[in-house]
Amino acid sequence: MAEASKHFTGVALELWPAANFTKTKAREKISLRALAGEVHGAKRALTQILLLALGLEVLVLAGPFY
């Protein structure tokens, strides 16, 4: 028991359904686009992030040559 207590620091739960438990129909999945809606300026912001990342990569890779 002492060895088990060295390695176990959490709590264990045993769960089971009640007698009156009934399964429900699966819910319809929601896409991220439907959840967030149309984000204004997202394309421009992502383009800027990608261009800045590309520029930084070029500078980092060119650094050892100078």
TrEMBL record:
Name under which the protein is recorded: Uncharacterized protein
Organism: mine drainage metagenome
